[in-house]
C-alpha cells in the first residue's frame, strides 16, 4: 500500500502541473491573439486614416408641387443634388442597394426616393442626383402653415437619408455599415416656379455597425 501510494503524489502533482501549464499556454495564446488584433486595429487606424465621408445638399429643383383640394393631398416631385465626398486615401465606399431618402415638412413626409447604387473611389467627390416623388395627405392646417412659411421666405425642410455602405480596402470588403444623415434645411420657397434657394443647412449623421 505504502509503495503504491507514494508514487501517486508526484503523479498527481505532475498532472496538476500539466493543467497549469496548459492554462498558461492558453492565456499566452489569447494574449498574443489580443495583441495581434489590437496591433491590426492600431495599424489600420494609423495607416488608413479612416475619415468619415461628408455630405451636403447643394441644390434642389422642384418640378411638381400640387395641392389637391378634393382629397387634401400634396403631390411633390423634386431632385436634390447631394455632394458626397470620400476623403479617404485608401478606403473606397460602395453605396449599396436598400437606401431610403425622405423629405418632410414639419413632420409630414412630402416625397421619398433612394440613392443610386455606385462605388466611390478614394479621394473622390461625386454629385449625386436624388429624385424623390410622393403624394401625401396634407391637411388644411399644414397648408396654411406652409403658406405662412412661403410668405416669410423660410420653409423648413427635413431631409433624411439612410444608406447601407460597404467599405472597401483595395479589393477587400470591410464591414458593411449603415449611414444615417439628417439635413435640416431652410429654403426660401418650395414651388416649381423658381428654384428654391437653400438659406441654411445643418447636418447630423451617425453610423450603425
Ligand atoms: C468620382 O467617382 C465617380 C463615380 O465612380 C466618377 O464618375 C468620377 O469620375 C470620379 N471623379 C474623379 C475626380 O475621379
Question: What do these coordinates show?
Answer:
The chain has 209 residues and is of the alpha+beta class. The protein has two domains: 1-48; 54-208, Immunoglobulin-like (Sandwich). Helix content is 29%, strand content 50%. It contains two helices and ten strands; from the N terminus they run αβββββββαβββ. The protein has helices spanning 2-48, 140-152; strands at residues 54-68, 73-86, 91-95, 100-105, 108-113, 118-120, 124-137, 155-169, 172-187, 198-208. Strands 1, 2, 3, 4, 5, 6, 7, 8, 9 and 10 form a ten-stranded antiparallel beta sheet that branches. Strand 4 and strand 5 form a beta hairpin. The longest helix is centred in the N-terminal third of the chain and has 47 residues, at 2-48. The termini are far apart. The mean pLDDT is 87. The site of 2-acetamido-2-deoxy-beta-D-glucopyranose (NAG) has 6 residues, from strand 6 and strand 7. It is found in: Membrane. Residues 81-181 form the Late embryogenesis abundant protein LEA-2 subgroup domain.
Major sheet summary line: 10 strands, antiparallel
Secondary-structure element order, N to C: HEEEEEEEHEEE
The CATH topology of the largest domain is given as: Immunoglobulin-like
**Helical fraction:** 25-40%
Which shape, going by the Cα principal axes? elongated
The pLDDT mean sits at 87
Could you tell me how far the N terminus lies from the C terminus, measured between alpha carbons in angstroms?
65 Å
**Per DSSP, what share of the residues sits in E-state strands of 2 or more residues?**
over 45%
Tally of individual domains: 2
Structural class: alpha+beta
Count of DSSP E strands?
10
* Rg, Cα atoms, Å: 29 Å
Contiguous low-pLDDT stretches (5 residues minimum) are: none
Pfam family, one: LEA_2
Main location: membrane
InterPro entries: LEA_2 (IPR004864), NDR1-like (IPR044839)
Keywords: Membrane, Transmembrane, Transmembrane helix
